[in-house]
Amino acid sequence: MMIITEIENDDVLKIYHNLGSIISVLSQVSNSMELTRFDITNKILPAIRYKCCRILYNKNGHPVSFILWKKIESNDINSLKNACYKWHPILGWNEGDDYLITHFFSDKRYILESIKTLKKECFNKGDIVCYFDLKHKLIHKVV
């Protein structure tokens, strides 16, 4: 059990709201996907706590997509490797100024709009964003 002492009550409510929103998006995207306690504890909650996630909502206030990322040093292969295999920044990878997108899920109807919005709202001009394509090839893009 992990005890968090530095979070205010309002922040706890926001953390659980964001967690619920992410679970809602995942349930819309796939009925067969299994979300485990490991996923929540080691992937989703650290991203929420370290402000490395963004959730988008439709005009009715329903969550439709989300993105999780990690800050890395893209020129350092060990930073990239550790970020891929270690779930929490405290466990060790060199946090740099570049981004590694680890998760992106979206309702089919909102994919293009979500990508445009996330690119505009999450990253600044000149930021380096890395992600793995469907063939597991690492892609580097400059925003």
UniProtKB/TrEMBL annotation:
InterPro entries: RTX_toxin-activating_protC_bac. Its EC number is 2.3.1.-. GO terms for biological process: killing of cells of another organism; toxin metabolic process. GO terms for cellular component: cytoplasm. The keyword Acyltransferase applies. GO terms for molecular function: acyltransferase activity. It is found in: Cytoplasm. It comes from the Bacteria. Keywords: Acyltransferase, Cytolysis, Cytoplasm, Transferase. It holds the Pfam family HlyC. Its main location: cytoplasm. It is an enzyme of class 2 (transferase). Belongs to the RTX toxin acyltransferase family. Involved in fatty acylation of protoxin at internal lysine residues, thereby converting it to the active toxin. This is RTX toxin-activating lysine-acyltransferase.
